[in-house]
Amino acid sequence: MKSELLVKVELLQNTLISNATTDKLDTGDYTQIRQELLSIKSLSKFIPDYIKSCRDLNQFWQFIKRKFQHYAERREFIYESFSELLAYLEDTTRTPSDEPISISIERSGVDYINEQWEKALERRTLDPEGAITTARTLLESVCKYILEKHNIEYDEKWDLPKLYFHTAEILNLAPQQHSEDIFKQILGGCQSIINNLGSLRNKTGDAHGKSIKYIKPSERHAKLAVNLAGTMAVFLLETLEYTLKKKT
Fold this sequence. Notes:
Blueprint: H1 4-21, H2 30-38, H3 49-53, H4 57-67, H5 71-90, H6 98-107, H7 111-126, H8 128-149, H9 160-170, H10 181-204, H11 219-247
Helix pairs in contact: 1-2, 1-5, 6-7, 6-11, 7-8, 7-11, 8-9, 8-10, 8-11, 9-10, 10-11
C-alpha cells in the first residue's frame, strides 16, 4: 500500500507534466504539496531545484517553456527529476512509522536530534550495530534537551535509564506519579523500553568491545531498536510541547 506522501508526490509529478504539455492550467494542489515537501528536511536533497524556486504553477510554466521547446523533452525532464524522490519514498527498507516519526521530530526544530534520527534510519540495513547505538544516542539527546529546557542540571556520566528517570519525572510520566493502574502499567512499559534499549545497545551496539559470546544483530533487530527509539522520542518531545504550552 502506497504511503500518503508518495501518492501526493506522484500527483505533483503528474500535475507538472500536465501543465508542461497542455495549454490547460491544472493546479493539482501544487502549492500545498510543495510546502509540505519543503517542510520535511530529510527530503531536501531529493526535491528538484525548480520545485524549490517555483512558488506556483505560473512560475513553473515560465521555467519549463524557456528550458525546453518540445513536450517530449519536458515530460522526460520531469520524470527524470522526480526519480530519486520517488525511489526514496518507495524504498522497501523503510517502515510505515518512519514518515510520521520523521515529520514529528523535524517539527521539534532541534536539528541535532533530527540528524541522529536520520542517521539511525540510514544505518538500519547496512550497519545494524551502528543503528542500535544511534538509537540510544537519539534518546539520550532528547532527554538532555528536555532537561535543559527545564533548566535542570545533569551529569554527562548519567546513562540513558537515569536520564530518562529524571526526564519522566519532569514531564509527569513516571509511573509513581499516577494512581490509575492502567497509566502505571503503560508508563512502566515505557520505562522498560528505555532500560532495554540501553541494554540492547550495550550487548549488540558498536560502542563496546566484543566478547566471544557476542551475537551480531540483524536488520530486524536494528529496525526494532530504531522504531522504538523514534516512537519514544516523539512521545517525549510532544509531551514537552504540551507541558510548555500549559505553562503559558
